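User: I need a structural model of Cobalamin adenosyltransferase from Roseateles subflavus for a docking pre-check later this week. Nothing fancy, just the predicted structure tokens so I can convert them on my end. Input:
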Amino acid sequence: MANRLSQIATRTGDDGTTGLGDGTRVPKDHLRVQAMGDVDELNSHIGVLLAEPLPDDVRELLITIQHELFNLGGELCMPGYSLLKDDAVLRLDEALAHYNAALPRLQEFILPAGTRSAAIAHVCRTIARRAERAVVHALHQGEQIEAAPRQYLNRLSDLLFVLARVLNRANLDGKGGDDVYWHSERLKRQQAEPGED
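Assistant: Understood. Predicted structure tokens for Cobalamin adenosyltransferase:
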């Protein structure tokens, strides 16, 4: 994008339309704009997560992710244009493998709870899933969107789940230490009757 914002309140959107990066004006509820909004919301919530106490390596990873999400949003804003680099999805795959390797195997489904930072990571995860659904919906309705944004959001939601588990164990606010497990009927039966499933 050659132009930088010099004015925020342009009033050009008062008619219910907004401009894409290629100059096209579309309704503000256009599928592409909805996907862009979900990505922006996700990036904003990652900003909230970055305001929490975090391990240094997680902080650096999230800062990189914020920049990549901005690229992803820019790509959605410009039909036919590619901004998200190939190595972005690979970086998420590597981070997933790295952080997941140190975690114990899940015993049951977990709740989006624990430390404040872990809970915010779960909120980010759910917004990433919504953004992914918005991109897929736009694709199914004929929008031209590269594969990388969809793949990136899919991997990112998985990574945020793993990071929530990491942040509970980091216990930087003294309120965590482990996953918060869902108390399913199956788990209750197993605890009441050891050895039976």
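Before docking, keep this in mind: Confidence is low (pLDDT under 50) at residues 5-9.
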